[in-house]
């Protein structure tokens, strides 16, 4: 049995970064959509495109180079996805990217990748990623479906509230110790239950400052 790889879960800021997808099928389309959602700048190299990818090209959301992969194509990119149906080509892409220190994912070959794409459940600011390290992608997807049922729309409202409060606490309170105390108290406050019961109303700036002042004193 192969030992568990030394992966570390991480969120990458892709906004504005040049990313390359090599291949034009459905896997390439999924990778491209995920990159676009992360506001990356995407170029696709492939002789043909799926209908979804072609629509993205027609609407100027991606760049398209209509040809097969050639040596040197990964130069200048921050991240590369190899999604062709030819294992030897994918291996060449991975080797080139690795030599240049570029993040690379090979859809059909976990061991050749320097990062994996987990299954993801999103709810506003909440992101939960699930990976089986390539052992069972369908299992990871099924777990995400369960998480999607567990963490409903109330979490989007709840985390927007926490984001606003955290920003105000950081701006208003100088002491790191006091900040930590207030943030801990905030998570103990029954906001989530109020949202679920339909009783929650967004706090005004005055309410926020009163809460901070009162709980600083406690």
TrEMBL record:
Protein's UniProt keywords contain Ubl conjugation: no
The EC number(s) this enzyme carries: 1.3.1.76
Pathway: Porphyrin-containing compound metabolism; siroheme biosynthesis; sirohydrochlorin from precorrin-2: step 1/1
Keyword Oxidoreductase: yes
Reaction(s) catalysed (UniProt annotation): precorrin-2 + NAD(+) = sirohydrochlorin + NADH + 2 H(+)
MF terms (GO), sorted A to Z: ferrochelatase activity; precorrin-2 dehydrogenase activity
Gene Ontology BP, a term: siroheme biosynthetic process
Pfam families: NAD_binding_7, SirC_C
Enzyme class of the recorded protein, top EC level: oxidoreductase
Annotated protein name in UniProt: precorrin-2 dehydrogenase
